[in-house]
Amino acid sequence: MGARAARGERAGRTVLVTAYAKAPHGTSMYEVYKHCGVVLEIDPLDHRVVAAEFTVITDLAGEFLRRLVVGYDVSRGVEPLARKLSQQYLAPSQQAMIRCLAVAFQRYNERAGHREQAAPAGEAAPSRLRPAVGREFRGEQD
Q1: Partners of 54 in beta bridges
Q2: Most buried residue, 53, 116, 119, 129, by most Cβ within 10 Å?
Q3: pLDDT tier at 10 (50, 70, 90 boundaries)?
Q4: Is 16 left (phi over 0), alpha (psi -120 to 50) or beta?
Q5: pLDDT by residue (tens digit) across 73-120?
Q6: What is the spatial distance between Cα 46 and Cα 31, in angstroms, rounded to a whole number?
Q7: Are the C-beta atoms of 44 and 15 separated by less than 8 Å?
Q8: How far apart are CA 36 and CA 46, in angstroms?
Q9: What domains appear along the chain, each with residue ranges and CATH number?
């Protein structure tokens, strides 16, 4: 099955999550957009990001971020992905982008992650996400 057919098959069950944060002052991103944003398409059956777009100035930056994020299991929380971005995405918008991801993960967790999903025949239903996804990143405790 091709990538386009797989995306079409998933479209009936995926969830689209967006989040935005203020872009750092003095950057091209701030001058053009004022904010940075992420749009994530997540498959609630396995909590993996299947597609991602980012508000960035260059196509290369968007593609780089996409490669880091697509396939990530959001049920792991944002911390491992934030560490990866801190090490590999060395841009003035790094912290704003991490904040966007944390908000998107939290939004997914609060709105979509707790819905029970029907499992395919012969498979166990996926477990619910931890209610604190995103809190650990901000230093909050349960």
Answers
A1: 38
A2: 129
A3: low
A4: beta
A5: 999 999 999 999 999 999 988 999 999 999 999 999 987 644 444 334
A6: 38
A7: yes
A8: 27
A9: 14-111 (3.30.390)
Does this model's pTM top 0.90? My answer is no
Instruction: List, for residues 44-77, the tens digit of each pLDDT value.
Output: 999 999 999 999 888 999 999 999 999 999 999 9
Give 111's contacts (C-beta < 8 A, 6+ positions apart).
17
Contact 56, 93 (CB under 8 A): yes
Q: Are 46 and 73 in contact (CB under 8 A)?
A: yes
DSSP string, the chain: --HHHHHHHHTTT-EEEEEEEEPPTTSHHHHHTSEEEEEEEEETTTTEEEEEEE--SSHHHHHHHHHHHTT-BGGG-SHHHHHHHHHH--STTHHHHHHHHHHHHHHHHHHTTTS--PPPTTSPPPPPPPTTTTTTTTT---
Output phi, psi for 88, to 5 deg.
-115, -25
